[in-house]
Design brief:
Zinc transporter family protein; mainly alpha; transmembrane; 8 helices; 230 residues; membrane; single chain; transmembrane helix; globular
Amino acid sequence: MSAIVLGGILFISMVIGAGMAWLIATIFQHSKEGLALLCGGFLVGILALDLIPSAINAYKLPGIALGILIGFIFLLLVNTSFHSSNQHKPSVYLLTIALFIHTIPLSLTIGNLLEDSSFARSITTSTILHHIPEGFALTSVFVSQGQKIINLFLCFISLSFCFSMFIWIGNHIHLDMKAQSILLGISIGLIAITSVNEFILRNIKVMSTRSAATFILLGYLLSVVFHVVF
């Protein structure tokens, strides 16, 4: 299976996730803050149930920790840049960057296995299921912050292109585990800090404690459902 086909499959899976997010957004369209809190809870759940355990099992902890530190420093620099230019909603861009970085270790690994026909079905399945939650998360962020739908689809297309490109690179160039663990750590750090700081802490103050906790818990429960089903 070619890298281009897998990139197309990734795009389709993210669109499926986007459709689910639009359905949820329609239900909670009266509260953008609530949707942001729900997205924050969802991202925390994805980290706790999927990304962090998978990273610890597959990669070296020092590399992951270094990546998280780099992600934190990068986040501080980006936040300073956005706030100094009077842009107060950098979370869309931060999450998109985090997802871009997150696709790199996965796509490189797939690239290394691309010539092995015995992995074709499992690679296709993992590509579809792994990126439905990411499509859901990214769409939730775009909707909660009133971003244009065309920008969302441009992100999907860019992620698909990035995925295909690094599959091709992984098929020709070997990136050692240390470098991959650092990249994964960066994405974990960006997603973790963005979900807590930009989605939860920035919106929790404008709602009652009970309502905020309900939205966060609902988002986390959605991540549990995604984890079990996908």
